[in-house]
Design brief:
- 41% of the residues lie in helices and 19% in strands.
- It is an alpha/beta fold.
- The protein has one domain: GTP cyclohydrolase II (Rossmann fold).
- α4 crosses α5.
- The radius of gyration is 16 Å and the shape is globular.
- The N and C termini lie far apart (32 Å).
Length: 179
């Protein structure tokens, strides 16, 4: 079942895909995924976004849960600026440096809409599919318990290895298996 929720762009709503019955609202499997047209749609190997989305859809489809798709392309900087950041990366900058050179933070996303969606559905606790420690903090700060971090381990492509290392070293992303 798909539900839409308003975003800052009325024609591009956030989407929540609910799979199965949410019997236990204290421990719902959840993926909060930010739009990545280049990875999700066009299969770019510069990032692991499309592979993470596919893995999340498969697991949520099998176990039940909620996939929240937030319309905030390029870590919140938009598609045009993301492509400008790609050009800077082609000249030697990493993803963080490129965003900052364009006048943005390393990550300008707002996870408030995801929190609002979870609260709207009545979710109190989540098993959050993420490698991003910031995504763990935000629900907890809003009163939603993260009962488990469920890692999404995608083997790096040659094209994405430096990008993933930057996410680990500069943004604190967790690439362990959560053992």
């Amino acid at each position: 079942m798909m539900h839409t929720f308003s975003s800052s762009h009325p024609d591009f709503p956030h989407v929540a895909m609910v799979s199965g019955q949410l019997a236990n609202l204290d421990s719902v499997l959840v993926r909060i995924h930010s739009e990545c047209m280049t990875g999700d749609v066009f299969g770019s190997l510069r990032c692991d976004c499309g592979s993470q989305l596919a893995a999340a859809r498969a697991r949520i489809g099998a176990e039940g849960g909620i996939l929240i798709y937030l319309r905030q392309e390029g870590r919140g900087i938009g598609l045009v600026n993301k492509l400008k950041a790609y050009n800077l990366q082609d000249k030697g900058m990493d993803t963080v440096e490129a965003n900052e050179a364009l006048g943005f933070h390393a990550d300008d996303r707002d996870f408030t809409p995801a929190i609002d969606i979870l609260k709207h559905v009545g979710v109190k606790g989540i098993r959050l599919m993420t490698n991003n420690p910031d995504k763990i903090k935000r629900p907890e700060q809003a009163g939603i318990t993260v009962v488990e971090r469920v890692p999404i381990i995608i083997p790096p492509e040659q094209e994405s290895a430096a990008y993933l290392e930057t996410k680990r070293s500069k943004m604190g992303h967790l690439f362990d298996r959560g053992d």
